[in-house]
Amino acid sequence: MTVTANQPTDAAAAPSEKGAAPARALTVSAGRVGLHLIGYAVLVGIWAFCSLVVFTEYVLPAPWTVGAEMWHLAADGTAFVQFGASILKIALGFAIGTVFGVPLGLLMGRIRYQKYFWQQPLLVLGNVPGLAYAVFALILFGIGAIGPVVVVSFVALPYVALNVAQGVEEVDRRLVDMSTVYGLGRGDVIKSVFLPSVMPFLFAALRYGFAMAWKVEALTEVFGGRSGIGFMIRQSFQEFSVAGVLAWTGFFVIFILLIERVFLAGLEQRFFAWRGGR
Which of 69, 86, 137, 262 could staple 247 via S-S, CB 3.0–4.6 A? Predict the structure, then answer.
């Protein structure tokens, strides 16, 4: 009777333990989000204090003034038009950098002397200050959309090439040999062995390269753009509108957070869940 009585208790305990894990994870996630919100609230509070006590409203507009300006820009569609212009330039530049970076990374990962030849120039290219890129783009291409696109491609190229090369180096050679033994062609080996290894590194290049490219692209627009977020920051500055400068900067920060922390992070969790949270 004792054994019979204990069996339902153990069986009932197992589901409760299984159900506790998601609840615990949800609690931890909610706590993390709460801390993030508190951090943002503290930052806005410091901003409001500086606006009201340290400076004047003309020098440093209050958060609610900037918020009203952002609402106005979003309501009349200006924010969406200008962000669309910037996103198009970033997409074109990143596509160009990826088209050249992926083959170069594959070459570096497969052939050692190619890695030694290209690694240092790519590192130098990736560490050029964004201000220098913006100035040279203005000198070489003048005012327009070509400069930001070229700058983004130069920023994306090192991230893509170096990460793809690292992904190729991480490929288990035993899997390649086994695929060859079983008669798989080169295309099948690339599809079944190399791509699964390279894709996480390529996605990392996309995340970090996008964040850097967006900043440099906006800076290039400040100097020589005719549209986009950087151009609007420059225009607001020329009109002595500090609220406008802060409003467009706020749009910039919000967009980066949404793309990086929500969209790209969500895609990474969805497509690379097999890595077990590494």
Answer: 69
For the chain, give every domain's residue range.
63-275
Indicate if the pLDDT at residue 230 is higher than 60: yes
Closest CA to 229 of 58, 65, 78: 78
pLDDT tens per residue, range 44-64: 888 888 888 888 778 888 889
Q: Are residues 147 and 137 in contact, defined by beta-carbon separation less than 8 angstroms?
A: yes
Instruction: Domain 63-275: give its CATH architecture.
Output: Orthogonal Bundle (1.10)
CA distance 255 to 210: 12
Look at residues 263, 275, 278 and name the one whose alpha carbon lies nearest to residue 211.
263
**Residue 60 CB neighbours (<10 A):** 18
**Structure tokens given for 20:** 């506790």
Residue type, 133: Y
Q: Are 163 and 224 in contact (CB under 8 A)?
A: no
Q: DSSP state, 273?
A: G
Q: What is the CB neighbour count within 10 angstroms for residue 246?
A: 21
Q: How far apart are CA 245 and CA 214, in angstroms?
A: 17
